[in-house]
Every structure is written in C-alpha cells, then in structure tokens.
Amino acid sequence: MEWSFHGRSPVFMQICDLLRTEILCGRYPPGAQFPTVRQLASEAAVNPNTMQRALSALEEEGLLQSGGTQGRFVTDNPEVLASAKDALQRKTVQSFLAGAARLGISPADIIRIIEEQEEKG
C-alpha cells in the first residue's frame, strides 16, 4: 500500500479513507485480523497515536471490531460492508460529478466519454 498524505485534511482522516478503501476493495477480507497500530504506523511513517485515532474511527463506523487482546478484525457483517461500500461509491461519483461540473462537462458528454472509454477497453 502506498502511503501519501497531503495538507488539505488531517492525516488521520486520510488514513481512514485509505484503509476504508482497502477494506472495501477486499485487501483485508471480512473476518481477517487487521495489522496492529504499530505495524501500520511504521509502514505509513506516522505517529502511532495518529494511526490509533484512524483505527478507532473505523471501529466507530463498524468496519473494524476489537478482539480485545487478540487485536482488531475486519467486520464480517455483510450489511455494514455493503452500506459502507455504497456510501464510498456515492461519494466517489459525487466528487467526479462536481469536478466535471467545474470543467463545464455536461451529463451527455460524460456519458459519451464513458461509452468511448468502454469501447476502447
């Protein structure tokens, strides 16, 4: 995983976004044990407290569950995963549409461009 941070939002929120995407894309499958705070903090080159804050936020969302002394695990609740994936998809599309609107791209042009790209493979 590539850890890259920018100054537009707090690092812990950027970590949440990255890990949420990794969970929802299947890098960490349902029920799998999640890496420890120290492992992830070392890999991302961030303070462990920053990583802890991000993982706690993902627990609050229900994507991670605490296993006590055994660590954290990805939820195996299909409703939680489906809801989070739907929310991420909608957020991604909304961001895309907002960018397209700023560029003056019409919905018809968006559809045309997508169809052209699909044909190209």
What are the defining features of this structure?
single chain; 121 residues; mainly alpha; two-stranded antiparallel sheet; 5 helices; 5% strand; elongated
Q: Which regions have little confidence, pLDDT < 50, spanning 5+ residues?
A: none
Radius of gyration: 17 Å
Read across the widest sheet, the strand sequence of neighbours is 1-2
Protein structure class: mainly alpha
Strand content: under 5%
Number of helices: 5
How far apart lie the N and C ends?
A: 26 Å
Shape: elongated
The ordered string of helix (H) and strand (E) elements is HHHEEHH
> Major beta sheet, specifics?
2 strands, antiparallel
Helix content: 55-70%
Average predicted local confidence, pLDDT? 95
Q: What is the tally of beta strands? A: 2
Notes on the protein architecture:
It is a single chain. The chain has 5 helices and 2 strands; from the N terminus they run αααββαα. It starts with 10 loop residues before the first helix and ends with a helix. The model has no long low-confidence stretch (mean pLDDT 95). It is mostly helical. Helix 1 (11-24) crosses helix 3. The longest helix is centred in the C-terminal third of the chain and has 25 residues, at 78-102. Strand 1 (64-66) and strand 2 form a beta hairpin. It has helices at 11-24, 37-44, 48-61, 78-102, 107-120, and strands at residues 64-66, 72-74. Strands 1-2 form a two-stranded antiparallel sheet.
